[in-house]
Amino acid sequence: xxxxxxxxxxxxxxxxxxxxxxxxxxxxxxxxxxxxxxxxxxxxxxxxxxxxxxxxxxxxxxxxxxxxxxxxxxxxxxxxxxxxxxxxxxxxxxxxxxxxxxxxxxxxxxxxxxxxxxxxxxxxxxxxxxxxxxxxxxxxxxxxxxxxxxxxxxxxxxxxxxxxxxxxxxxxxxxxxxxxxxxxxxxxxxxxxxxxxxxxxxxxxxxxxxxxxxxxxxxxxxxxxxxxxxxxxxxxxxxxxxxxxxxxxxxxxxxxxxxxxxxxxxxxxxxxxxxxxxxxxxxxxxxxxxxxxxxxxxxxxxxxxxxxxxxxxxxxxxxxxxxxxxxxxxxxxxxxxxxxxxxxxxxxxxxxxxxxxxxxxxxxxxxxxxxxxxxxxxxxxxxxxxxxxxxxxxxxxxxxxxxxxxxxxxxxxxxxxxxxxxxxxxxxxxxxxxxxxxxxxxxxxxxxxxxxxxxxxxxxxxxxxxxxxxxxxxxxxxxxxxx
Length: 483
Ligand code: NAP
What we know:
single chain, alpha/beta, FAD/NAD(P)-binding domain, 2 domains, 5-stranded parallel beta sheet, 21 strands, binds NADP nicotinamide-adenine-dinucleotide phosphate
C-alpha cells in the first residue's frame, strides 16, 4: 500500500488524512510541529480572532457542522471543530505532534521521500505538504524594536499573560488581524495608538448568532445547510469575477466600501486617512462592523506618519515625535512567499525547491513541481484568492492527489511527476490571466513580492480550480514503472 507523509496538521493536513483514508489510502502519517492540531487556528488566539468566511463555507464538505454559534465562527470554535473532525474520522492516531520536519529528500533509487524530523527519519512513497501560507509571522525590521522595555509581540504569538487593562497599547498594522484585535483592546486599554502604513477597503461583516431553532433545522435538514453553503459560494464566485476578469462588477463593491466609511466616520480628516486610493480588492478586502466606530473612540488615535523607530518607552514617528507605549502589538502579517519554509525540500538531482523557486514560487495548479516527483503541495503557489474558502481549495487539491494515487495504482507505477512543458504552459496561462486582475492595479499587499511577482493568487473562478484539479492526465503527468 502506498505510504503517504503529510507535513502540517491544520485544515490541510487533517482534511487530507481523512479524505485519503476514505479513498482507501490509510497509510498516512501527519507531522505537526505544534502540540495540537489546528495550524493557524492553533496559533492565532489574539482577542477577536475569528474567521471572515461564513462558517458554512469554512468547513469540510464531508463534515458539515449545524452547530456553529455564529455566521462567522470565532477561533476557539474553529479549533474545536477541526479537533472534532480529526477525532470523529479516526485520524488522530495518524498525527505525530511536537514533530517538526526539517528536511524532505527524494531518494531516486528507492523512489521514496525521506523526511528528517527532530524525532528521527521517516520514509514514505508520497509527500504531501500542508504547511499553510500564513504561519510564519513577519516581524518588521523596525530599528530599536529590541530595545523596547515593555512586552512587544506579534498577533499570532499573543501574550495572554500580558494584561492590557489600563495600558497604552501601540498596534502596528491595519490588516485583517489588526481590525479584529483593536476593537477588543480599545475598551480595556487606557489608550490605543494604531499605526497605519496604507489603509485597506472593508465591507460590512453583518455577523449574527444562530438561534438554537435554526441550528436544529440545519441538523434535521442538512440540505438547507448545503443550500446556504452553495449560496455563499455563488456570492464568493461573483466576488472572484469582480476581482479577476469582470472589472465592470467592481463599482457596486466600491460604493458599499465607501459608504461604510462615510456612515461611521464624520470627521473629514479621519475619513481621508482611512480611505484607500487604490482599487477595491487590490489589497485583501476586510470584513468588519466595528473597525471604523472603534477608530472614532476618544482613547484611539490613528497615526499615519511612518514608524521611524522604537525607543525603550514607545514609538518614534518620522516627524521626530515620541509616542509613549506600554505594549507593542505587531499586526504586521506573515511571510507569505515561502510556502513550505523553513522546511528544506530536496528533489531530483539534489535540487532544492528554494532553488527551483529562486525567481518566484510556481507549481502546476499550485500542486506539483517538475523535478519533485511523488510530491504535492496543498494550498501551494497561486491557490489563494481574494474570495472563497481555503478549505474548498484544500479539498480540490486532495482530490487531485487521490487521482494521482489512482493512476499510480492503475499502472502499477512507482513515480508520478508533472511534465515540465505542462507546468510551463500552465504558468504562462496563469501569469497572463493574473496581469488582468485587480491585484496588479498598483498597491502593496501580501500577495505580491518586492519585484511585483505574484506567487499567491488564483486568477479565475473557484469552480475552475476544482474542475482542473479533478483531472490527472497523461499529457500533464509522466508515470514511471516500478523497478
Ligand atoms: P496583513 O494583511 O499582511 O497586514 C499587515 C499590516 O501590517 C498591513 O497593514 C501592513 O501595511 C502593516 N505593516 C507591515 N509591515 C509594516 C511596517 N514595517 N511598518 C508599518 N506597517 C507595517 O496581515 P494580517 O492582518 O495578519 O492578515 C494576513 C492575512 O491573514 C489576511 O489577509 C487573511 O487572509 C488572513 N487573516 C484572516 C483572518 C480571518 O478572519 N479569516 C483574520 C486575520 C488574518 P501595508 O498594507 O502598507 O503593507
